[in-house]
Amino acid sequence: MNMKPILIALCCTIGLASAGAMAKCNGPKMGKILKQLDLTSEQQTQIQTIRQTQKSEGEAQREAMASVRDSNRASMKALMENPTFDETEALRLIEEKATHKQTRALARMQAHHAIMQVLTVEQREQFLTLMEEQREKQQKRKNKKSS
């Protein structure tokens, strides 16, 4: 069995997942947008607490996943070095990575939702407008780079 096409497909899948994660890092920054809102000191405190909790949980989750990542790298290496391709093992590795990504996305969404609940209706509308403006600016920069 020729493993080269399978290896290329697997690397592309992993690469695309990494690219998606990078795109999130370069997306509109919530903190920058929140600074543009007229927040009360109480709202600022509540949002700071939510963001700090999210940061702490994220750090704890990253630390917990470090050993899993190492294990997955070893499994991936063994999979690629094995003379026969183990599709079940490959799918397990892909699924494990997808599950971790989904868990992180869910945590981000929960924090975002909690922050939105702190805002007044007017602030939410302004926040969403500013977010959309940031996305449009980002898209223009992206289109400019690709041309």
UniProtKB/TrEMBL annotation:
<keyword id="KW-0574">Periplasm</keyword>
<feature type="region of interest" description="Disordered">
    <location>
        <begin position="52"/>
        <end position="72"/>
    </location>
</feature>
<comment type="similarity">
    <text>Belongs to the CpxP/Spy family.</text>
</comment>
<keyword id="KW-0732">Signal</keyword>
<protein>
    <submittedName>
        <fullName>Spy/CpxP family protein refolding chaperone</fullName>
    </submittedName>
</protein>
<dbReference type="Pfam" id="PF07813">
    <property type="entry name" value="LTXXQ"/>
</dbReference>
<feature type="signal peptide">
    <location>
        <begin position="1"/>
        <end position="23"/>
    </location>
</feature>
<dbReference type="InterPro" id="IPR012899">
    <property type="entry name" value="LTXXQ"/>
</dbReference>
<dbReference type="InterPro" id="IPR052211">
    <property type="entry name" value="Cpx_auxiliary_protein"/>
</dbReference>
